[in-house]
Amino acid sequence: MTGFSLFIREMGRLCGIRNMLLLHLTLALAAVGGAGTATAHEVPNEVTVLTYVKPEGDTLTLLLRLPMDSLRDVDIATDSEGYLDLPNIRTSLEGAAQIWVRDVIEVYENGEPLPQPEVLDARVSLPSDDTFTEGYDAALAHTTQADLPADTKILWEQGLLQIAYGYPISSENSSFSIEPALARLGLQVNVVMRYLGADGTDRVYDVHADVGQVHLDPSWWQTVWLYSERGFREISARSEYLLLLLAMAMPLIGSRQLLITGGAFLLGQTAGLMASGWGLTPNTLWFPYLVSFLIAASIIYLSVENIVGATYRRRWRVSPFLGLPIGFALSAPFAENVQFAGAHLLTAIIAFDAGAGLAALAALALAIAALQVAFRFVVPARVGTIVLSAFVAHSAWHMAVERAALLGQFPWPPLEALVASGAMSWLIAIIASAMLLWIFSGLSADPEDGADRNSLAQRF
After folding, report:
1. Residue at a domain's end among 149, 183, 217
2. Same domain for 247 and 185?
3. Quick check: 155 pLDDT over 50?
4. What is the pLDDT of residue 413?
5. 13 and 142 within one domain
6. Which residues contact 382 (CB under 8 A, 6 or more apart)?
7. DSSP of 165-184, one letter per residue?
8. 190-194, 443-447, 448-452: which has the highest mean pLDDT?
9. pLDDT (tens digit, 9 = 90+) per residue, 245-279?
10. Which residue range forms the structural domain that includes residue 30?
11. Are strands 188-196 and 118-125 parallel, antiparallel or unpaired?
12. Of residues 105, 334, 362, the one with CA closest to residue 223
């Protein structure tokens, strides 16, 4: 006798059911019913919600359109064929609008949460009807006025739900923000928001439902806070950035040249980030791979220079070119968040760059403190610089090889494509600047170079 049969027999004995066939049938029906329920409550993989936000007078209107199959456990009236009973569905739609949307979205005025809104209207729309995407006025009229004909044949899973909410506000000129916490509608929920300000502002945001609070028309100080925090967080996760800074600063510990070199590096990083922010860099697939390879190559160059004992007092002259690819690399995470800058693009770039620089400074300060202790009590500074630079160069070499392999998968673009992408202009500018610095370096002898070499010899 199988384990399942034993289970059935024992259940029959405990429940007092003598007819085993009846129990089998009961359990089978329960299993079928459970499977149907699971299918009805299946969570969609991807959901897109379209919204309009418009403050006007003493009311902020929020319009939404979302797929109805993302709303679960809703008691909907249907006819004998299973289609929506449109004349008797209004109460069900308003209930769904409250439970699944209104109760989870938070709208703020000047930083203070607004009270729950009134559901102005909720209607079913056909997926083939694009009226909602034609602008705010068309979407509002379609949501509050355009009922589907009563004889329309549409299933719950096929329809779109359009909702209009009205929030009481104190002024249409206030600062508004929204937290579209609609993540439970699906496994991945994207929210496309269009904000229409009273001053004519028209901004579009494309965010994930769990993005947190979004300032619809951010002020400059909100932009500074947001982007400095994201710049700080971005650098904390980039090991190659910290390796480059360590290789650049290692032989300059305790010297005023460290401050000058760091400032020149930050200048180059800012230039690269600003160029990317204004779309001046090549918009090609291979450019990010080239940038990542150049960062690894820069670490190798600095490490080798540390080992052979080159003149460090002139390192500041190459530092801007070392910071330039870092700025290019930071442009990718910056571009992902540029939509939140509002009208403060330059402020966002500077704040993001400052946050990144602050994170680098904090990490570098800890590294310098540890190296100073090591060079003083464990190993001579020159020996320690050589050993540590060798380890850094080894790590950078592996990074360079891997990134060169990825870059090699792209065919070398023809000259016309380079010129069209803007890469040639950048290359000519970088080479020209490097030549000018090299000529200037040769013409202007640094009287401290000899002292620098003597100091290095003594440290060794």
Report:
1. 217
2. no
3. yes
4. 61
5. no
6. 309, 456, 459, 460
7. EEEE-S-TTS-EEEEE--GG
8. 190-194
9. 888 888 887 777 888 888 888 888 888 888 777 77
10. 3-40
11. unpaired
12. 334
**Do 207 and 190 meet the contact criterion of CB atoms below 8 Å apart?**
yes
CA 306 to CA 393: how far, in whole Å? 10
Residues 35 and 145 in one domain: no
Residue where a domain stops, chosen among 217, 252, 277:
217
DSSP state letter for 84 = B
Counting the structural domains of the chain, the total is: 3
Q: Does one domain contain both 85 and 163?
A: yes
The predicted model gives 405-430 an average pLDDT of 63
Strands 202-208 and 59-67: unpaired
- Residue 413 host element (H or E): none
Residue 336 in tokens? 């992902």
Q: Among 33, 69, 25, which Cα is nearest to 186's?
A: 69
DSSP 286: S
> Cα separation of 395 and 383, whole Å?
19
Bridging pattern class, strands 160-168 and 59-67: antiparallel
Beta strands at 105-109 and 118-125: parallel, antiparallel or unpaired: unpaired
Q: What are the backbone angles phi and psi of residue 371, rounded to the nearest 5°? A: -70, -40
Q: What is the pLDDT of residue 325?
A: 86
Residues 309 and 450 in one domain: yes
Check whether residue 290 and residue 433 sit in a common domain: yes
Q: Are residues 276 and 414 in the same domain?
A: yes
Q: Check if the beta carbon of residue 207 is closer than 8 Å to that of residue 63.
A: no
pLDDT in tens, 87-144: 888 888 888 888 888 888 999 999 999 999 998 888 888 888 889 999 999 999 988 8
The token pair at 47 is 């959901």
CB-neighbour burial class of residue 215 (10 A; exposed 0-12, middle 13-18, buried 19+) = buried
Measure the CA–CA gap between 349 and 278, rounded to whole angstroms.
Answer: 10
| One domain for residues 7 and 150 | no
**Residue 455 CB coordination number (10 Å):** 14
